[in-house]
Amino acid sequence: MKAFKPVRGMRDFLAEETSLMRFIEGKARKIAKIYGYKEVITPVVESYELLAAKIGEEMRSRMFVFKDLGGRDVALRPEFTASVARLIATTLRTEPRPLRIFSFGSVYRYDEPQKGRYREFWQSNYELMGSNMPEADVEILMLTNSLMESVGLKNYVFKIGHIGVLRGIFNQEGLGEKTQNAIMQLMDKKQYEEALKIVEDAGASKKCISTIQELVKLKGREVFTIAEKLRKLVEGYEKAVEAVKNFYEILRLIRESGCKMDVIVDAGFARGLEYYTGIIFEVYVPEFDIALGGGGRYDHLIELFGGEPTPAVGVAHGIDRIMLAMQMQKATVERTERAVMVIPVEEGLKGEALKISQMLRTADIPVEVEVMGRKVTKALEDADRRKMEYAIIVGGKELKEGAVVLRNLKRREQKTVKLEEIVNELKGHGD
What angle, 0 to 180 degrees and rounded to 10, lies between the N-to-C axes of helices 15-35 and 134-150? Predict the structure, then answer.
């Protein structure tokens, strides 16, 4: 019989990986709660037209697209923002602003599989819709900082740019949106020479070309110094100057928030998605050269979908990549559960073992009952191998005294405990 494997770019999560992913998911949900973001669930399958609208040429070419049985062009979502924007433009159009929306789930892109890149991957997504204020941008950055910190990552760095600066220059030079998007796609890949060639071929001025050449060199941790250099560099480009002012205000609010963020400003930074209008950012750890998350401001997407003009800013975090980064940094995942194995000594005590397991589960203690018919020694070896923390040995002699044997598998210690005291004993133990 043929042995089946997962489809290329998809994979199975085994128990340990699933546990780590659910740990990160739990942290993402907690962050959503403490920042006031309400969860919505949107379809995995959406209309192709919706998803393709402003996602960028490269991502359009990597979408899983097909016709449904009704002949409609549909696709698997490659990200969450378009679906959430659709909701805001329709069902939630009369809800009071701002709206803080959280989503968690799988997304799909036909990328070449490699470390940190899969065709099915998982994201936590946060959108703040209705505010054009810089404090909204800073909230999304702080929220991302909170998530990175809460999962135990160290030395992570935020790379921040402002697409409004580039758009301001190109708009004043008369470059069309399609041309601008092609330039941004190349800048996103750091193919600056090719990007400059398009700028030149589009008939941009020498001033524009030299401005972009200097702009891509502006990067570093001296954020206010770089912002000031950027302001001087774009003098004469009215909208670009406004964008730099907005950028400066965001950087100032980050500092004043007291949030300890390691920020690198990169004036030549661009992202492939076409809908960005303002600040853009990504977060990295030194061990891993792929972004763990990224986002930015997009102020025109919702009206594109038929909604009222609604400024918005958002971020998506790559759960799979955060998992890899945690493994690289050997980040510790706190365990609050105390897994227990209940082992009956003989055939006639199986019912008592099940009764004790039920009592412990009612007290929210994770329990497995020995169901393989093993002798006590073999059952203890198995519990140890599977990293159980405690074993409860149910023997006839102890039961006559209303007790069982509680064995700490880590410490190799055991004692007799009264049945009514087991729950307190397990919950009160610290390792």
Answer: 150
The parent domain of residue 409 ranges over 340-428
Using DSSP, state whether 126 is helix, strand or coil: strand
CATH code: domain of residue 248: 3.30.930.10
Are 251 and 371 found together in one domain?
no
Q: Which of helix, strand or coil describes residue 343?
A: strand
124 occurs within a structural domain: yes
- At position 351, the amino acid (one-letter code) is G
Q: Where are the alpha helices (DSSP H) in 190-237?
A: 192-201, 206-215, 223-233
Q: What span, in angstroms and rounded, lies between the C-alpha atoms of 314 and 32?
A: 13
CATH no. for residue 414? 3.40.50.800
Is the separation of the CB atoms in 46 and 75 below 8 Å? yes
Same domain, 277 and 391: no
Residue 298 lies in a domain: yes
Last residue of a domain, one of 296, 329, 362: 329
Q: Would you say residue 175 lies in a domain?
A: yes
Tell me if 8 is assigned to some domain.
no
**Which residues are within 8 A (CB) of 79 and not within 5 positions of it... i.e. 6 or more apart?**
55, 59, 107, 123, 125, 273, 316
pLDDT tens for residues 174-216? Answer: 999 999 999 999 999 999 999 999 999 999 999 999 999 999 9
Crossing angle (nearest 10°) for helices 238-257 and 163-172? 170
* CA-closest candidate to residue 31, choices 247, 260, 317: 317
Residue 393, strand partner residues: 343, 405
346-368 average pLDDT score: 95
Do 138 and 74 share a domain, yes or no? yes
Beta-sheet strand order (sheet of 120-129): 38-39, 99-108, 120-129, 312-318, 288-297, 279-285, 157-162, 263-266, 219-220
Residues paired with 48 in a beta bridge: none
DSSP 117: B
pLDDT > 90? residue 428: no
pLDDT at 57: 87
Helix (H) or strand (E) run with residue 65 in it: strand 65-67
- In this prediction the pTM is 0.92
Q: How many domains does the chain have?
A: 2
